[in-house]
Structure formats: C-alpha cells, structure tokens
Amino acid sequence: MLSTQDKLVAWLLIGVLAILTIFFNMYLLLVNYRSYRKKHKLNPADFIITAIAIASISQQVLTYSWQTMDVIDTVCQISLVEAILLVLVFSVKLIIFWSTAFLTFYYGTKLVVEPVHCYTRIQEAIVKHVHIVLTVIVVSGFANCVPLLSVLTYYNGTTELGDCGSIMPSDTPGLVYVFYYVVISDIIPGIVMFKCSISISYHLAKHLLDMKASSNGTHGPKLGTQMRVIKMTLSLVFVYSCFVVVDIYTQTTVVLMRQNTLALIMLFASIYTTVSAFVLIYGKKSYWKELIASYNLFLDEYPCLNKMKVEEVKHEPHEHSHGH
C-alpha cells in the first residue's frame, strides 16, 4: 500500500519526468516539422514518430493532472473527473504502445528483405498505408478503453489510503475486461515487437557474416545509418520488455490485490515515455548531433558548467539513410 508521502514522492518524480518527456518529444516534433516544411511531406517513419511524440506529450499532461488530483483531492469530491482522466491515460498508453510496435514493424519490413509470399505482401500493404493504420490505432485506443469507466470504482470507502478512481472490478465481467485490456495493450504489441526484433537481429547477424566472408575479415561491415536504426529498434524493444513486466505486475497489485498502487503504474509509464523518446532521438544521427550541439552551445553561456559538455558526434562514412 502507498502512503500519502509515497504518493507525494511519485507526484514529484512524475513532474520531473513530464518535463523531460515534453522536452524530448517537442524536440522530435520541431525537427520533423522543419523537415516537413522543407520537403512538404513526412516519410512514414517520421510520421509514426510524430504520432508517438504527440501521444507521449498528451500522456504526460494527463498523468500529471491525474496524479495532482489524486494527491490534492483526499475526500474524492471530483472522483468522476479523476476516473475520466484515468481512462484517457490508459487510452493514450495503448496508442503509444501500438504506435511503437508499428514503428518496429515498419523498420523490420524496410530492413529485412524476405522472399515474396503472402505474409510479405500483407506487410507491404500495411506499410503503404501508414496514415490509415495510425488512425485505426488511435480510434481503437479510445474505443477499447471507454468500457473502463464501468469497471472503475469512483470511491474506495474502505480505506483512507485508497485512490478516488481506481480499477478494482468487483465482478467477473470486470475482471475479464481488465485481462482483455492487458492482453491488447501490453502483450500483443510486445509480441509484434519481439517478432520484429528477432527478424532484425537475424538480418544483422547474416549481414555481418556475409560481409566478413566477402572481405575475408580484413575490414568491418559498412552499415552506416542502417546500423543505428537497428540499434534504436532493438533498444526500443528492450525498454518496452522491461516496462511490460513491471506494468503487468503493478496492474496485478491494483486489480487482484486491491492495493492503491495506481500512482506506480503512472510513474513507470512516465519513465517509459521519457526513455523511449530519448532512444528515438538517439536513433536518428542528425537529430542526436543537433541536440548535442545545442546542449553544448547552451553550456557555453555558463563557463562553470564546461565539464558537463558532451563530445560531439563525428562524421561517419556511409551516412545514407535507410527507411528514414
């Protein structure tokens, strides 16, 4: 069980993470907007990243609002507002996870060349209609979470430590729905990501072996930006895997053990959005290079902070983009 002090600490941490998440995602949005102004269109990867960035910012604002109300409103006067905010948080969380799974799927399709058969044709069809797929993800994100309102307990009068709006279903349909939500929001996107990461890892290993065989081991493989995208995609899958384990456990403590640990679900989701935004920036060399340059330029204004400077990225050969 979380005490009032624990909730206060979670609230402060979520506030710090919200600032970082909004900063990283606003940076992604601004860079993509600049690219759009130049080319008058966004490539599919950047379009998916833009959707993830908007959803991540929305999630942090909603999460911080819910946490603020949960800490301040101790007598549950506005429990319905908190319940609606909670449903919105869970909806946006589902949208973020599915959009991230779609991004790994997109990179997996672009990086891994497979023989043409029925499955690859379906993949190509999905990748060609990025806008439609993202619209379906957003609509289904909200549609799948609205029933949460019927499962929410607006007021938990049994203990003063209880959350005003919490997911504690008292009947079998409620439990079945929560189980369904966990499967579609955490497990299925995880399976998609895991499948794509295996394909990408296999492709990478095969590519490295082919390069080694063709050059007799005299010089390393030249993958350039493609290698960075592979690292980014695998990092996203790793971060997601760590988060899902913690998220499912925490949801179990709320739903089955009836503990007031919703604040922890919010905190872990905030950590996830912050780390994944950082990974997305690092994955695009031009984004990362520019961010480091801006950071160092900011530190130039304060000579006492010179030691905090980060070494700028050196130019690499074979900087042709793949799937960007």
Q: What is the CA–CA distance across the termini?
A: 46 Å
Mean pLDDT: 80
Give the overall form: globular
Return the CATH architecture.
Up-down Bundle
| Beta-strand percentage range | under 5%
CATH fold-level name: Rhopdopsin 7-helix transmembrane proteins
Question: Helical content, roughly?
Answer: over 70%
CATH class assignment: Mainly Alpha
- H/E element sequence: HHHHHHEEHHHH
Give Rg in angstroms.
Answer: 22 Å
- Largest sheet, order of strands side by side? 1-2
How many domains make up the 3D coordinates? 1
Protein name: Taste receptor type 2
GO cellular component, one term: membrane
Membrane topology: Multi-pass membrane protein
InterPro entries: TAS2R
Could you walk me through the main structural features you see in this protein, from its secondary elements to its overall organization?
The protein has 324 residues and is mainly α. It has a single domain (4-212, 223-295), classed as Rhodopsin 7-helix transmembrane proteins (Rhopdopsin 7-helix transmembrane proteins, Up-down Bundle), CATH 1.20.1070. 75% of the residues lie in helices and 1% in strands. It is built from ten helices and two strands, in the order H-H-H-H-H-H-E-E-H-H-H-H. It has helices spanning 4-39, 44-72, 79-111, 118-128, 130-145, 148-151, 172-215, 225-255, 262-283, 285-300; strands spanning 152-153, 166-167. It has a two-stranded antiparallel sheet with strand order 1-2. The radius of gyration is 22 Å and the shape is globular. The relative contact order is 0.13.
